[in-house]
Amino acid sequence: MKKYFSLLKKQILCLVATLLATVTITVIAQNNCINLKLNKKPTYTSTYEWCKKRAKANVNMKATVLLIFLKIKSKKDWKNLKNNIAKPYGPWSYTKVAMPENMQNCVYNVFNNHEVVKAVKPISIHKERKNDGKVQKIVVQTENFGTIKIATVSGNLKGKVTTDKDGYTIILSPSTIKKLKLSNDSIKGIIGHELAHIIYDDAFEWYIFDTVYCKKHWYLNPLEYSDYYFALSRACETRADIVGTFGNPRWAKGLIEFFKKINTEDSSDHISKHSTHPTPKQRIAYLEKIYKFLSNK
Ligand SMILES: [Zn+2]
């Protein structure tokens, strides 16, 4: 009899756990948009701190769904898993080009910023030159994130982070910057955004969710899984936009200008289920609020 009750108890617990997981997935699925809930901001906190907090909470919510899908029970299990997966790196196919002087100055400026220094703890910074003497890369040794390189390549690229053996590379394209006539503040805003991706190791987490676990858990409904995966990607982008300003109004303004320029290329108002990024309009909307606060401080 005792055995029977213990079995029943187990079954009930299992049922409750499944129900809870379903409810969590449903609730979070309905919250597919980026919602910073500014109307709920308590008076004791600033607009910037609140948006940062909300953006982080959005990422956590979306990541929780994927972890439920993958039956990973705790943050500790996820951390252990991450530690056992090798970071992807390898030769990339981009063609390196010289870094214009204004971009070099922007990189130095970003790594001199007080908040950036606090977050990444740079130890040294130097320029790497090609045979012709032109600068192609700036290499920053940091205490917190290994070696962060900023490299310039050809092609139509808007900014990207790749993982390396010893850290990360932020890749920027001078031709895109020239084509869009981006200001130095926009360049700094973009570098800040990519730095935020490094701080949260976003590229590596996406790689695990997208490649490693999607393949391993092929029996999950791949369409549903990818919906949540893309929702997580959009939330991470919002977090990188907000955290990546490092509280600097000019970088926020620079990002707004950048999104206004790409908005003419990509003027869609709607988020598709498979958008990796929020629409430029959505990004401009929350950054405007943050800019207004930061510039009035
Ligand atoms: Zn991004």
Would you mind describing this structure in some detail?
This protein is of the alpha+beta class and 297 residues long. It has two domains: 182 residues, no CATH class; 95 residues, no CATH class. It is 58% helix and 11% strand. It has eleven helices and five strands. A five-stranded mixed sheet has the order 1-2-3-5-4. β4 and β5 form a beta hairpin. α7 packs across α9. The longest helix is centred in the first third of the chain and has 29 residues. About 2% of the residues have low confidence. Zinc ion binds next to α7 and α9.
What keywords describe this structure?
297 residues, alpha+beta, five-stranded mixed beta sheet, 11 helices, globular, binds zinc ion
Into how many domains do the coordinates divide? 2
Query: Poorly predicted ranges (pLDDT <50, ≥5 residues)?
Result: 27-32
Looking at how many chains there are and whether they match, the oligomeric state comes to single chain
> How many helices?
11
Q: State Rg.
A: 21 Å
Give the N-terminus to C-terminus distance in angstroms.
69 Å
Strand content: 5-15%
State the order of secondary-structure elements, H for helix, E for strand. HHHHHEEEEEHHHHHH
What are the bound molecules?
A: zinc ion
Overall mean pLDDT: 86
Number of strands: 5
Structural class: alpha+beta
Q: How would you sum up the global shape?
A: globular
| Main beta-sheet strand count, sense and barrel state | 5 strands, mixed
Helix content: 55-70%
Neighbour order of strands in the largest sheet:
1-2-3-5-4
